[in-house]
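Q: Here's a chain of 227 amino acids. Please give me its 3D structure as C-alpha cells.
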Amino acid sequence: MAQLLILSPAADDDVLPALSLLTHRIRVIPASPEQLVRAPESDLLFLDARTNLAGAKALAQILRTTGLSSPLVLIVTEGGLMAVTPDWGVDDVVLEGAGPAELDARIRLAIGRAQSAQPSERIQTSGVVIDEASYSAKVHGRPLDLTYKEFELLRFLAAHPSRVFTREQLLSEVWGYDYFGGTRTVDVHVRRLRAKLGDLESLIGTVRNVGYRFNVHEEDEQAPVAQ
C-alpha cells in the first residue's frame, strides 16, 4: 500500500476513478506551486493534466527543478497524449479511464524504478535528507535553499555525526587547502545554515573552544544512512 498524492485543479477527488478500487492511501491537493510548500510526503505523485496541459507542464517542470524525489505520473485524456514530450520531466503517463489492474501496475513499477535509481550518496537523519546527486537538502520534506558551500558544510557534518571538527579542519575539508580566507568564514556559514534549518538549528552544535559537530537527535535509532 502506497501513499499517493494527487495534484489537481478539480474540486473533487474523482480524478482517477479506478483508485477507489485499490487500497492505496490517497490525498488530493490543488495543482498550484504555492500548495507544494506544505505538500505531504508521498511515495508517488499524480499530476492532473486533463483540462490544462500548459499549466500541468509548467508545474511538472517546477517539481523537477525543486528536487522532487518521488515518481511523477501524468493523468491525461487520450487527446492529451500527443502533447506530452520528454521535457515535461514526468516518469509515466496514465489515461484517466485506466482500470485498477493497469493503474496498480504502473504505481508499483514507478515506485520500484525510483527506489532502485536512488543515489548511493543520500544521507537521512534527524529529519534532514541530503541528496548529493542533486545537491539538494530537505528538512521534514521542506526544501532548503542552500548555497553550494552551505550544502557542502551540511553534507560533511551530517556524514560524520557527533564528531567534533575544528574550524581549521572544516575549512580544509569544505573549502580546500588552497583557500586563503580565515576561519571566520566557517562561523558565518554555520550561522546562515542554522538560520535556514529553522527549528532544527540545534543540529549544528557548537563545542566551546573547539569547533562544531552534527548533533543526532536522541530519538533517532541509528546514525545517518547512505541509501
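Q: Can you summarize the key feature?
A: Residues 19 and 167 are 54 Å apart (CA to CA).
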